[in-house]
């Protein structure tokens, strides 16, 4: 049983660590702010949550696990809110990506006025 | 293992400090100093100074970044080029740093059980805090019970300072400057 | 124990890359995004340090950091957008 | 019991639960302190603004948890897709701003939908409106599951 838990948490740690590194690599490699948001999304979701799950498996059914659960829940809810706030602030400051394949933002603005 | 963590965090800290010194865009400097505080707080955790890390996270990472941005609204975006050379300040910093490092040589090793701080009144407080105050955390017991009036005065000072800063920034920003952005 | 070390190493690599983005910018929003991601990484790192040093009470600080990171990011953005902290969004929503 | 009272009690209970997790001590005196401080918080909140549906959302169905499981699957899938893009030797993006219509009735439902979109890497909600969301997507393939997600969020809405 102990071995099984160790293997499970090893799995979550390595996968989470891998996603963290790939996400951070994306923050450096991707060409503009708008694509980098998605790399940050990787860090905030799978990266952080899998690491937390790995830690939860390490501590078993204790108060520590409950705290980790709270941290996980908070990152799960506040993470995307912060990401959206950054994207929204950049958008309303007139920051726009180059080379859009499709752009509905004009239609969106019209729909809001109507 | 913890030594490696300390060293890596410290290397990041130095890297951030160099970047802050070299950047001229003040918004970037404000953001990076927030990052610097996060790193410093992580370092405090690694050094087992949990309560200091708490304070650093709250004050350094949160409040002071926002106050710095508030001050930035009253200032130009770019830092001015210094009119004098960097040599004299550099020498001054190096000398001060060397003196401080020289001073630490006399200090007992980090976490050493023979250090005066561990042998003087420390054990007394550790033994008596729980039965005397009923507070499970010794740091809290000392802060809020043994020196409760001192802490009350301290928090009052910080509260008044925060209110005054907010008032200064709030009043001068009230002159109808609307939306901005980079 | 070894995988804790490996996971911390992965965290440090990710932190370094995010720091590079925070240095490089180029826009203000890149930096805010980088500092926000760095905050998430710090939360995980502090939790991890708790396990490395076998002091799970570090998690309280990790929780506090998660809260502060969110509030800090929102405050910075609010400031950048409206140039003030005291006003609500409705007060200066000329085009927002 | 009115809805307002229920919300006040729920908020107090949630705060006290949070306090218990953080403290981990169960002596009568400290428990009393916990009760007093959570009650104080509830009082301050009630003084600042009325405790309404925005503050304490009770009107959500328990199937929210099932939705979260489904969302977790979606997040894993899109993570793999984004990771593939980042690790590709030459990064080729076809970014787009797309209009995503929403069918939710309440603000809470729209917030859950917008947050779910942001949670899945590859799509980020940029601006919210009454009837639609403006979403930035890394490529066409990321936006295909959004109508399905919209339907599922509407299903868990309480009213």
Supply database-style keywords.
heterotetramer; A: 114 residues; mainly alpha; 4 helices; C: 96 residues; 3 helices; 0% strand; flat; disordered C terminus
How would you portray this structure in words?
- The complex is a heterotetramer of chains A (114), B (182), C (96) and D (159).
- Chain A contains four helices and one strand; from the N terminus they run H-H-H-E-H.
- Chain A is mostly helical.
- Chain A has one domain.
- Chain B has 182 residues and is mainly alpha-helical.
- Chain B folds into two domains: 79 residues, Four Helix Bundle (Hemerythrin (Met), subunit A), CATH 1.20.120; 61 residues, no CATH class.
- In chain B, 74% of the residues lie in helices and 0% in strands.
- The longest helix of chain B is centred in the last third of the chain and has 26 residues.
- Chain D has five helices and three strands.
- The radius of gyration of chain D is 20 Å and the shape is elongated.
- Chain D starts with a helix and ends with a helix.
- In chain D, 28% of the residues are buried.
- Chains in contact: A-B, A-C, A-D, B-C, B-D.
- Chains A and C meet through helix 1, helix 2 and helix 3 of A and helix 1, helix 2 and helix 3 of C.
Number of domain units of chain A: 1
What gap, in angstroms, lies between the N and C termini of chain D? 19 Å
> What oligomeric state do these chains adopt?
heterotetramer
Given the helix and strand composition of chain A, which structural class is it?
mainly alpha
Q: Give the SSE order of chain A as H and E letters.
A: HHHEH
Uncertain residue ranges of chain A: none
Shape of chain D: elongated
The biggest beta sheet of chain A reads: none
- Derived from helix and strand composition plus strand pairing, the structural class of chain D reads mainly alpha
Strand content range of chain A: under 5%
The strand count of chain A comes to 1
The DSSP helix count of chain A reads: 4
Order of helices and strands of chain D: HHHEHEEH
Report strand order across the widest sheet of chain D. Answer: 1-3-2
Low-confidence runs of at least 5 consecutive residues of chain D:
none
Shape of chain A: elongated
Could you outline the blueprint of secondary structure elements for this entry?
The complex is a heterotetramer of chains A (114), B (182), C (96) and D (159).
Chain B: H1 2-22, H2 26-46, H3 50-72, H4 87-105, H5 116-119, H6 122-133, H7 138-146, H8 148-173
Chain C: H1 2-24, H2 28-52, H3 59-82
Helix pairs in contact in C: 1-2, 2-3
Chain D: H1 3-23, H2 28-48, H3 64-87, E1 96-101, H4 107-119, E2 123-128, E3 132-137, H5 146-156
Antiparallel strand pairs in D: 1-3, 2-3
Helix pairs in contact in D: 1-2, 4-5
């Amino acid at each position: 049983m102990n071995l099984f838990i160790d293997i499970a948490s090893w799995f979550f740690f390595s996968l989470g660590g891998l996603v963290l590194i790939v996400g951070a690599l994306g923050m450096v490699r991707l060409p503009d702010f708008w694509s980098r948001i998605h790399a940050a999304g990787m860090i905030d979701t799978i990266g952080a949550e899998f690491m937390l799950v790995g830690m939860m498996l390490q501590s078993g059914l204790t108060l520590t696990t409950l705290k980790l659960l709270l941290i996980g829940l908070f990152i799960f809810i506040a993470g995307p809110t912060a990401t959206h706030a950054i994207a929204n602030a950049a958008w309303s400051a007139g920051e726009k990506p180059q080379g859009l394949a499709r752009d509905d933002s004009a239609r969106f603005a019209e729909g809001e006025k109507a | 293992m913890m030594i490696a963590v300390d060293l890596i965090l410290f290397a990041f800290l130095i890297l951030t400090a160099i970047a802050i010194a070299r950047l001229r865009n003040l918004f970037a400097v404000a953001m990076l100093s927030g990052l610097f505080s996060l790193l410093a707080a992580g370092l405090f955790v690694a050094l087992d100074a949990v309560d200091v890390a708490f304070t650093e996270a709250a004050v350094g990472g949160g409040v002071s970044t926002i106050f710095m941005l508030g001050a930035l609204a009253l200032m130009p975006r770019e830092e001015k080029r210094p009119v004098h050379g960097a040599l004299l300040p550099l020498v001054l910093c190096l000398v001060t740093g060397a003196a401080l490092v020289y001073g630490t040589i006399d200090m007992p090793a980090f976490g050493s059980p023979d250090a005066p701080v561990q042998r003087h009144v420390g054990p007394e407080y550790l033994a008596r805090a729980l039965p005397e105050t009923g507070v499970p955390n010794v740091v809290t017991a000392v802060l809020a019970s043994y020196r409760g009036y001192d802490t009350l005065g301290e928090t009052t000072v910080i509260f008044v300072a925060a209110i005054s800063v907010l008032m200064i920034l709030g009043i001068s920003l009230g002159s109808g400057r609307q939306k901005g952005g980079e | 124990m070894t995988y804790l070390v490996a996971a911390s190493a992965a965290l440090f690599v990710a932190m370094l890359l995010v720091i590079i983005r925070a240095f490089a910018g180029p826009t203000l929003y890149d930096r805010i995004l980088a500092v926000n991601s760095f905050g998430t990484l710090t939360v995980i790192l502090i939790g991890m340090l708790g396990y490395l040093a076998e002091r799970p009470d570090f998690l309280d600080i990790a929780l506090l950091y998660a809260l502060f990171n969110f509030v800090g990011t929102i405050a910075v953005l609010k400031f950048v957008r409206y140039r003030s902290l005291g006003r609500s969004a409705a007060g200066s929503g000329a085009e927002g | 019991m009115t809805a307002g009272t229920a919300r006040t009690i729920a908020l107090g209970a949630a705060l006290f639960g949070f306090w218990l997790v953080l403290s981990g001590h169960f002596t009568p005196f400290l428990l009393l302190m916990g009760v007093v401080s959570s009650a104080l918080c509830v009082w301050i909140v009630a003084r600042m603004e009325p405790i309404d549906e925005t503050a304490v959302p009770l009107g959500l169905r328990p199937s929210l948890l099932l939705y979260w499981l489904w969302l977790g699957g979606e997040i894993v899938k899109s993570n793999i897709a984004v990771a593939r893009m980042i690790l590709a030797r030459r990064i080729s993006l076809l970014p787009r701003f797309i209009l995503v219509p929403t069918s939710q009735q309440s603000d809470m439902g729209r917030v859950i939908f917008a947050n779910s979109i942001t949670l899945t890497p590859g799509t980020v909600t940029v601006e919210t409106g009454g009837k639609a969301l403006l979403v930035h997507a890394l490529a066409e393939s990321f936006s295909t599951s959004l109508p399905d997600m919209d339907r599922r969020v509407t299903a868990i809405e309480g009213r």
